[in-house]
Amino acid sequence: MKKFKYGQSNSDHTLFLKRNKDKKTCLIIYVDDMIITNNDEEEISELKRKLFLEFEMKDLGNLKYFLGIEVLRSRQGIFIHQQKYILDLLAETWMIDCKPAETPILTNHGLQIIEGAKLANREQYQKLVGKTMYLSQTRPDIAYVVGVVSRFMHYP
Predict the structure, then answer these.
(1) Which residues contact 146 (CB under 8 A, 6 or more apart)?
(2) Which domain holds residue 112?
(3) Tens digit of pLDDT for each residue in 28-45?
(4) Residue 155 located in a structural domain
(5) Same domain, yes or no, for 14 and 57?
C-alpha cells in the first residue's frame, strides 16, 4: 500500500489511509478480505485497478458482511448488527434456547485459577472466547465479561 502512497495507521496496522486535500480513502485488510471506503470515487476506481494488477481478486460490491458483522443500508443510514453471527454461535454451543441475562457476570465475580482443578477443553474454550471477542464490537455491554473470560485463555 505504501507503493500506492497510502500511509499505515499507527493505531491499527491493518488500516491504510490516503489524503488528498479534502478527500480521504481508507482501506482495511483482514487476512484475505478488505474494505475500501472514501469520498472520492475516482480514487477508489484507481486503487481497485492497481490492486487487480498486483493480486488475483474480485470485487464483491457494496459491503454486506465482514468479520461477523452484517451491514445494512437504508435511507436512514448504515446499520450494523451481528444477529446471524450470534445465532450461529448459540447453535454451535447448543445454547439456542438459552434465556437472556441483563448482566452476564457480576462485577466482583471472584473467578480465579485454582491449582489442581479440572481444566475445561482448552481448544474449545479459546475458540469460544475468540468468537465472543468479535461480538463486543457491536455489543459493548458484553465487553467486560469477554475481558474477564479471556484472562483464563491459557488455563481454562
Answers:
(1) 129, 132, 133, 135, 136
(2) 82-150
(3) 988 888 889 888 788 888
(4) no
(5) yes
